[in-house]
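USER: Note each token:
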Amino acid sequence: MKTMNEINNSFVGMQHPVINDIQNNEPRPKREVMTLRIYIRTFWMDYLVMVILGIIGIVVNGLRPIPNRVFPVYFRDGEIVNPEFGYSFGINIIPTWLSGLLAFIIPFVFIMLMQIRVRSFNDVNTATMGLLFSIISGAVFQVLIKWLIGGLRPHFFSVCKPSINPASVGTGKGFDGLMFDRSICTGDEKEINFALQSMPSGHATAAFASLVYCSLYLNGKLKVFANYRPQYWKFVLFYAPLLGAVLIASSLTIDHYHHWYDILAGSIIGIMFAVGSYRFQYASVWDFRFNHIPLPRIEADYGFDYHLDQLQESMSGSKKGGWKNGHIHGAPFDATATLSVLPTSAQMRGELNLE
């Protein structure tokens, strides 16, 4: 009867010949040394698209909202119909500029701190560009929705300053003439435009696009959810950026800039772009064996082949778990190529004489 260590060693021995055969069929091209010229040649299109999207976002954000929103103000008895739109107009607890700055700075600090162990320009570039992809794409996405759909902010009536009284009810549009549009507003036009663009929340989108991305990056580098039980501080650190995102987004209900459903919509958009951007840049989102490895761009035609030899070429921020010695087995989630070189459960039972 073979011991478990002998069986484990035989597993590793089975993997490398198959992997080498695959590699020999299509030899990897010689790697180019990264220079400024090669970097610009490789990534100039990405930066150009980011600039274009940034310009689109800035321009659209300054445009007059497309929909002509109608809303009731009073019932016939003089009661206010929607008091949730009657809050006072004040100052953001977290201004827009600060929200955008935090969205970039917090994850970037963690990316740079991780280089104490990883020490990889490729990882810094991959992680930072992914962060920018998430923030910029999410921002343009939500700005277009605000412009084309929008909605009334909680402080809408405060900036609209409608020139109407209960006696004028019945002269509007819709059933019983209760509905009016922005033509009854007497406030500042820019403030009215802003107050008509409530859904989704831009703060929530930026917070979740960046800080969910940050949590995914920390998970990939520190192996929070992996094949071993890490120290508790890693678990806490993984959720800390998520707490920050929730606090930033939720503050908008205190200063009456957004409704809870605006925040929920913005959060979903941010999460969507955070997960998409991370997977766009890294070999996996949750597969602990590969989710710290940047996907190739210079050798994009060759691609990433998801075999365990790759673990020797890209350093994780953690030394635990075994992905540096080739003893990791199994294929959770989307990295399944190594399953073909592993024995089945029936073969394992046969090796152990359990049948």
Notes: The CA atoms of residues 68 and 207 lie 29 Å apart. The first helix runs from residue 4 to 25.
